[in-house]
Specification:
Rossmann fold; 2 domains; seven-stranded parallel beta sheet; six-stranded parallel beta sheet; 13 strands; globular; EC 2.4.-.-; transferase
Length: about 375
């Protein structure tokens, strides 16, 4: 019998996370209540944090939430909670605030299991009438940028002890948890979305080969590497798609670097299919060593060549990717990609790794609890 799900994840529709992909498929056979994020961020006086706080407060008190850009698999709950509350009183307040609101939305669920994609979900455990707890670990919260690491680690340790099943997105993450209840669940890919030909976007730069990246322009992106490579290859166009989440001065003022801003997920195949090579210029950090980026399989599903810095999640795909660490190496790999014709091989390598297949694995483990 399928367990219904109470999912604690990031804000629904904010970006197409692995939890959203997986739960969307599992929702075809079970009811789902989605609980928007309970913060893990360090509190600051920044305008971004203030705006986020006002938005969440407004959503928590709004009688009816606005329709998300992507249809949710069930009711979406915006909890009102004290961020990173660890005191006995703070935890009691959050347990009451979150539990009451979620129980109302989940009143009709059958044998619900909590899917906790954020350690902060531990605040509500035991107050929801859950039949089990799954910790879905897709990131290294002890190293994730912008997170209160010490508090996140304490919450994660408690969540791990209370979880009946732990699903880890990478081998490095899986190695940190008790083996008897941990399963490796690598990310999947929408191979049909990224492999079905679509027109070239009108804002794709002309006048030379294009190297492209999409994703958050965050501290773990090596913008110095991008800048130096762009200067070595003035005939290339470097397209950077994504919201700015760090200082971008390293790439500002370079004529062949084009920032296009964020784009909807459904629009990304048009870029990935029509640039000459996709790039993954990650810095070497603990967070990156533990990551399993969605864009890796999406780039491969598009069929275009991929040039990347080195990190463990490339294992299994290294024969399809050119790995470089220096601007000179990146430039040489990009030039070599212009004669690369193994698009079918890249697409074949990820064809069977669909989100539907990954969700079926997760569902089987959950329903066996």
């Amino acid at each position: 019998m399928a367990h219904d799900l109470i999912v604690f994840g990031e804000d629904w529709g904010a970006h197409p996370s692995s939890s959203q992909h997986l739960v969307s498929h599992m929702a075809k056979e079970r009811e789902v209540v989605w609980v928007n994020s309970i913060g893990l961020r360090k509190l600051s006086l920044s305008m971004g944090d203030a705006t986020r706080a006002v938005r969440k407060l407004g959503a928590a008190f709004r009688r009816k939430a606005p329709a998300p850009r992507v249809a949710a698999p069930g009711p979406v709950v915006q909890p009102l909670a004290l961020p990173m509350a660890e005191s006995r009183m703070g935890r009691a307040v959050n347990r009451a605030l979150i539990g009451g609101k979620v129980r109302m939305a989940a009143a009709g669920l059958k044998r619900p299991v909590v899917w906790a994609a954020l350690p902060s979900a531990v605040a509500a455990l035991g107050a929801l009438g859950e039949h089990g707890v799954v910790y879905y670990c897709g990131d290294d919260f002890s190293a994730l940028s912008g997170v209160d690491h010490a508090a996140a680690q304490r919450m994660e340790a408690e969540l791990v002890s209370r979880a009946d099943l732990i699903l880890a997105a990478s081998e490095m993450l899986a190695s940190r948890f008790p083996a008897h209840k941990t399963r490796l669940l690598p990310h999947g890919v929408d191979a049909a979305l990224f492999g079905t030909p679509v027109p070239r976007p009108a804002d794709m730069p002309e006048g030379g080969p294009v190297a492209g990246f999409y994703g958050s322009l965050a501290p773990w992106i090596d913008l110095d590497l991008v800048a130096a490579t762009a200067r070595l290859l003035p005939e290339w166009r470097f397209v950077m798609i994504g919201a700015a989440q760090t200082d971008l001065s390293a790439i500002e003022g370079i004529g062949n670097v084009h920032r296009l801003g964020a784009r909807p997920h459904a629009a990304l195949p048009g870029y990935a299919q029509h640039w000459d090579a996709g790039i993954i210029p990650f810095r070497d950090t603990p967070q990156i060593r533990a990551c399993n980026p969605l864009k890796l399989r999406e780039y491969l599903a598009s069929g275009r060549p991929v040039v990347s810095t080195d990190f463990p999640a490339l294992n299994g795909y290294r024969h399809l990717i050119q790995v470089a660490q220096t601007p000179e190496g990146f430039a040489a790999a990009l030039c070599a990609s212009l004669t690369d014709t193994d698009g079918p091989g890249r697409q074949a390598a990820v064809a069977a790794q669909s989100w539907a297949a990954r969700a079926a694995e997760a569902a089987a483990w959950i329903d066996a609890l």
